[in-house]
Design goal:
This protein has about 375 residues and is α/β, with parallel strands linked by helices. Helices cover about 40% and strands about 20% of the residues. Belongs to the homoserine dehydrogenase family.
Length: about 375
């Protein structure tokens, strides 16, 4: 039996609870929930209702207190896991204290694994499955959903490393948003509509694909975090502060005051993006925004790259992610492709991680 506490019950946290309820995961008992305002914990670690939890949380008179929440989880008679469904840097800073208290961590929050190298190494040293002290009841950390949502990117990478393969490069389209933008903007298909870059960004924003301020996608930092996570797992001490990242937001728009102002002025730079696209097309190429972990060559980074029509990245459609591992065992590349964003697939990744912990703790 594994006792689960969830921090953050917004879009992803709510979907995770729905998936747990739908599958009646009897060996995973949700015993605590908290958001930024309130929290509920069950009496004697009885399972909370997975269908009426919203009403229970809303009617709770207990203010959110992460210290108390962790104390409750660490006192569990069973193996305890806290699922951090926030995107909070402050919450990720608490992972070492949670692990020191014997509580495992599962999360889609990228901050703890792409932020300071010191924090990452603390987490690594305390988690039994990341190189820390071993034992059946030692705390574990799983964060598959930090890269590619539910796609088995980190699990595959970890298996390659553990089996002694030599990672040469990890190259990919890690952002569903930027995948959608450039799949629609830069195509060699004769049927492709010729739309301006700003109009595609506008549609993506209306569809909810972008962050509220699209510059948070276009500046490349989300991709940079994923590159950092993959690089560290591959054995590199990558750091966001030194990783080269191409910000494709036109320089005059980087400092405008609001997202509305940015969207209003972006059409002024359509010619800039159109020229990049046309130059690529003349050479039979398309534009793709890509992250690269270069283990051997030391040229890791994030940039807008041109690819020929024959390349797997050129034929991508929709908002899919695609990640290619080139290794000693897979010299022609091992490719993982599929939906890399969205509450359902992100929650699937979290749920899979919870099951890994349950199976490990229970010995099967």
């Amino acid at each position: 039996m594994v006792h689960v506490g969830i921090v953050g019950v917004g879009l992803v946290g709510s979907e995770l609870l729905s998936q747990l309820a739908a599958t009646q995961a009897k060996r995973l008992k949700v015993v605590g929930l908290t958001n930024s305002r309130k929290m509920i914990v069950s009496e004697n670690y009885a399972p909370l209702s997975l269908t009426s939890w919203q009403q229970s949380l809303e009617s709770s008179t207990t203010a959110s207190d992460l210290n108390q929440f962790v104390k409750y989880m660490s006192s569990s008679p069973e193996h305890a896991v806290i699922v951090d469904c926030t995107a909070s840097d402050a919450v990720s800073q608490l992972y070492p204290s949670w692990l020191s208290a014997g509580v495992s961590v599962v999360t889609p929050n990228k901050k703890g694994f792409s932020g300071s190298l010191d924090l990452y190494k603390q987490i690594e040293s305390l988690a039994a499955n990341l190189g820390g002290s071993t034992g059946n009841n030692k705390p574990l950390v799983y964060h598959e959903s930090t890269v590619g949502a539910g796609l088995p990117v980190l699990n595959t990478l970890a298996d390659l490393v553990k089996t002694g393969d030599e990672i040469q490069t990890i190259e990919g389209i890690f952002s569903g948003t930027l995948s959608y933008l450039f799949n629609n903007f830069s195509s060699l298909s004769a049927d492709a509509k010729k739309e301006s870059f700003s109009s595609i960004v506008k549609v993506a924003k209306e569809l909810g694909y972008t962050e509220p301020d699209p510059r948070d996608d276009l500046n490349g930092m989300d991709v940079a975090r994923k590159v950092t996570i993959c690089g560290r797992l591959a054995g590199l001490d990558l750091d966001l502060s030194t990783l080269p990242v191409e910000n494709i937001v036109p320089e005059p728009l980087q400092a405008v005051a609001s997202a509305d102002e940015f969207m209003a002025k972006l059409p002024e730079f359509d010619d800039h993006f159109s020229k990049l696209n046309e130059d690529a097309k003349k050479d039979g190429q398309v534009l793709r925004y890509v992250g690269l972990v270069d283990v051997k060559g030391g040229n890791s980074g994030v940039k807008l790259i041109r690819y020929p029509a024959s390349h797997p990245f050129a034929s991508l459609s929709g908002s899919d992610n695609i990640i290619k591992f080139t290794t000693k065992y897979f010299p022609n590349g091992l490719i993982i492709q599929g939906a890399g964003a969205g509450a359902a697939v992100t929650s699937f990744g979290i749920y899979s991680d919870l099951l890994k912990i349950q199976e490990r703790v229970e010995g099967y």
